[in-house]
Amino acid sequence: MHGSEGKDALHSTPEDDPRPKLLPRVLGSLAIVGLMIGLMIGRLTTPEPLELQQVEPAADGLVVWFNNEPKLHGEHIDGTVALLFDAQGKAASGQLKVNAKDVNWRIRKTDAGLLLNLVAARPLRGEWSGAEVDGRWRLEIHLQEQ
After folding, report:
1. Are 91 and 107 spatial neighbours (Cβ–Cβ below 8 Å)?
2. What's the CATH number where 106 sits?
3. Is residue 112 domain-resident?
4. In a domain, 47, yes or no
5. Domain residue limits at 126
6. Can you tell me the distance from the alpha carbon of 24 to that of 43, in angstroms, rounded to the nearest whole number?
7. Of 16, 42, 83, 138, which one's alpha carbon is 20 to 30 angstroms from that of 124?
């Protein structure tokens, strides 16, 4: 063959195939179905977010209820007790009595979660312990004067 001109369709360039190209459509459909199934599985396996449910005053401190066990970081800072929970919830505040003296508490939202501050006119020490009760997490905070 000495050229690209067509002589009775005997040349080196093949003719266009009149059949539709289905392979890209099949691969695209498989990718979309796989993405949708992956999103459904991911939605089913994500745990529910940790949430502060309730705060109750106790005889010598507070009882804080969560739906699951939160990550907790607690410190004694200049006579106050500060607890940081890796959870979601509403801001709240209140007052309780320890040894017939007032203690103010406040929960506020921060970037790291919820921060519980316990403040009194005199320095405080706190001890906390948690346990699972009836499918919820109960954190008991016991306060005493320093």
Report:
1. yes
2. 2.60.40.3500
3. yes
4. no
5. 52-145
6. 29
7. 138
Phi, psi (5° rounding) for residue 46? -75, 135
Number of domains, the chain: 1
d(CA 40, CA 64): 34
Going residue by residue through the chain, which has 146 residues, state the pLDDT in tens, using 9 for 90 and above.
555 555 666 666 777 777 778 899 999 999 999 999 999 999 898 888 889 998 998 888 899 999 988 899 999 888 899 999 999 989 999 998 888 888 999 999 999 889 999 998 889 898 999 999 988 999 999 998 87
Q: How many CB atoms lie within 10 A of CB 74?
A: 15
Provide the whole-model pTM. 0.69
DSSP string for 19-68: S---HHHHHHHHHHHHHHHHHHHHHHHSPPPPBEEEEEEETTEEEEEESS
Give the total residue count for the chain: 146
Q: Which of 49, 67, 47, 48 is nearest to 139 (CA)?
A: 67
